[in-house]
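Q: Mind making up any chain with structure tokens?
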Amino acid sequence: MPLWKRFGFLLVFVVPALMPAAGWLGARSGHPDLLAWFPLFFLFVLLPLADYALGHDPRNPDPDDAAPLEADDSFRWMTLAALPAQVGVLAWSARHAIDADFGPFGLAGWLLSQGIVGGVLAINVAHELIHKDTRLERTFGGLLLTTVGYAGFKIEHIRGHHVHVSTPEDASSARFGQSLWHFLPRALFRNTRNAWRLEAHRLQRHGRSAWHPGNELLRWTALWLAMAVAMGLWLGVAGVAFFFAQGFLAACSLEIINYIEHYGLERDKLSDGRYERTTHLHSWNSDYLLSNLLLFHLQRHSDHHETPRRRYQALLHHPDSPQLPGGYAAMFVLALFPPLWFRVIDPRVRMFHAQRTR
């Protein structure tokens, strides 16, 4: 891997830095309410423009280098460093929200900004970590998810989503013609419910009740509530409200990305009633350089679903996967407006399905 790309993955830490940057700009300019929206402007306007300007990165690691690349611990430490960064920016952001005396417009911008930061820094990085074999990485992934109150993702994503992806059984796979606003509340509710059900079933197989201390979700929920109590003791009711709100918005940002990643794609049902094996043809791929660096190659999602244990630095670009017309930041904005989304993406879905059936 070129040295510039190795260090390019550190761009993820630009994301939490956007919050103090917005606070500083607001104080210096005298327009804190307006500048509270700066992180969103950076991520959803400047980043897509830079993405299109810098273009694509379809290059894959040399097969001979794959094993050493996977074994390189420097990439693992980058993901582990996300936990102190998330805790630090969350605490600072909560304090600033109380001290800045935002009006309703500024507070809305600040909360949305922190929610998106949590979606990138906490949930996206946790997604990488919870797939790994080491207890340290999986624990860090759970802790990151707990900072946004969505620890159920640790269970449902592995035991639910990766099993049922691109089928009607998966709450995180959007059907063709389904709008984001129809998908989003259902995904949040069903995925949370499914996480508790999956963990209860796991315990039942061992002859234990769902309320047994071995229930992983009970432990993460207790920690999440302890974090909320700590925020309340420190910043009062407003701090607790901020903590809950930023977590909800971070979870929403995750499910919007899920909508983008699997919209309209389906696995065929076989004669025995089972679905075909998941391959790189069942997730949308995006090879835009800048946003892939910033997201630890999350946009090489097609390869991730084909080989879930593969570490982010070694993920492959598959040119025959369905290809998005932009990076996730651009697609995120597009998905918010269903008529525009359908106009841009639906023809690509139809074309991809037509090519598969030839």
